[in-house]
Amino acid sequence: MKYLAPALCALLASTARAEEHVSDAETGIDKPVFTPTNLKAPFLEQFTDDWETRWKPSHAKKEDSKSDEDWAYVGEWSVEEPTVLPGIAGDKGLVVKNPAAHHAISAKFAQPIDNKAKDLVVQYEVKLQKGLECGGAYMKLLRNDKALASDEFSNASPYVIMFGPDKCGTTNKVHFIFKHKNPKTGEYEEKHMKSPPSIKNDKLTHLYTLIVKKDNSFELLIDNKSVKTGSLHEDFTPAVNPSAEIDDPNDKKPEDWIDEARIADPDATKPEDWDEDAPFEIVDQDAEKPDDWLEDEPLTIPDPEAEKPEDWDDEEDGDWIPPQVPNPKCEEASGCGKWEPPTIKNPAYKGKWTAPFIDNPAYKGVWKPRVIKNPDYFEDKTPSNFEPMGAIGFEIWTMQSDITFDNIYIGHSVDDAAAFRTETYDVKKPVEEAEDVKSKPKPSDKPKSPSDLVFMDDPVTYIKEKLDLFITLAKKDPIEAIKFMPEVAGGIGGVVALAIALIALIAGSGSGAAPSKEDIKKTAQQAKVKATEVKDKAADAATSGAQAVNEEVNKRTTRSTGKAE
């Protein structure tokens, strides 16, 4: 499936809009000026000045939450121009303003979007101005029902499609999840796309496009490049349609069923000459002591070059004994000390006797339950006929702020979405890339995020930044903190104790005099206390986070965790 080129009229419109430009004072790069599109669609959003008439931030609590402080949607939203690599002058987007907070906002459609017997195209821009280490940037298309009209948007709001990037710890993927209604039970089940592609994690604007065809095929594009194609029937788990036949759950294996293919020969007997007590190894009777073997020489001797330390106190420290070193005479001979003949494998050894195995004459084969028709079987031939959608929402948690969403298209025309892309993303992309090249710092000046730091480059900064990030994460979600930074969770006490001890010792010896034994003992005790304090601090953060989330295992759900629908 190929993403079609935009229509000629769209190209002309884009050219006309591109005539107005301004020059960036800092970079000197010529930038186009934002002009709203003339394209029409069931839902098209460029976050113009009247955006607040369409979008409503949510201040609800997450479903089943008991803590207003940690689980309410307290994250703020703003519509503003990007501060990092802006591509079009005056082009504003919806911006996540708070790190480590829950955000939720939604906009209702003027009319429900129903794609029955139609293609569905969902497209939007995502700009990670501060990158993304742990957070989501996906959208939800909400089901058009009574709850949509009466309830405030939350994680429990029923959705039809969830689409977009998500990254934290080992998770790095672009979601495409749709909710499918079982025609027999009326229950909804999430269907997750298999083998999702990875997100684009830099500070440039990236365009995410989802096309679902009425023939049940789909295509996912990033920056107008196809990264995933497939079928709603074949490339989602659990499968849309259940198996036509299943194992009979009531069928039981008969008690006399023999499923052992081989057994020990019941007629076999141990040979009379089989000695089970014979040892595995015996002394080599033919071995002879080498002529140069030094039986009177010890393996080690006192180090002749060792000297008693000047500060050694016999009354306090005991008699000084020089350390042992290998006897140099033993290195020149075959060996030293008492000679003993080596052992060899016993040719008479046979071990414990066991009967040989033979084919089981009573074997009936591997038992399997009988197969019956699946009473819950159904066949949905058109899963692409999604339920009507009444709104779009962003319901996310993220450790990074300034995630920007812009130029959202939801409709049925691949051509219109392509034309919209030509007017927006295709215009800003080369400008942003040029700005990115000009603004890149020298390697030596490049600031690093905690995930980029290298211990050997700056040990103190490495430890401090890693610890600060771990504690921040642990206060919000201890489980996510441990998953995201296991190296800190496992080694925080030992690493910090070592660092403090080293720093203290170096500082103590700054006068030029070597630290005394009492100083070393005192410093070690202080390091131990400091390490305990740091370890307790991290533990307290994890504990407070655990109490805050209560019975929730992971606050960053990538899907609705509300009540069963």
From TrEMBL:
Region ranges (Disordered): 232-255, 282-316, 431-452, 539-565
Main localization, broad class: endoplasmic reticulum
Keyword Transmembrane helix: yes
Domain of life, per lineage: Eukaryota
Residues annotated as signal peptide: 1-18
Biased composition (Basic and acidic residues): 431-449
A Pfam family per the record: Calreticulin
Keywords for the protein's UniProt record, in alphabetical order: Chaperone, Endoplasmic reticulum, Membrane, Signal, Transmembrane, Transmembrane helix
Topology term for the membrane: Single-pass membrane protein
InterPro entries per record: Calret/calnex (IPR001580), Calret/calnex_CS (IPR018124), Calreticulin/calnexin_P_dom_sf (IPR009033), ConA-like_dom_sf (IPR013320)
Compartments reported by the entry: Endoplasmic reticulum membrane
Transmembrane domains' residue ranges: 488-507
Cross-referenced PROSITE patterns: CALRETICULIN_1 (PS00803), CALRETICULIN_2 (PS00804), CALRETICULIN_REPEAT (PS00805)
Family stated for the protein in its record: Belongs to the calreticulin family.
Protein's name in the database: Calnexin
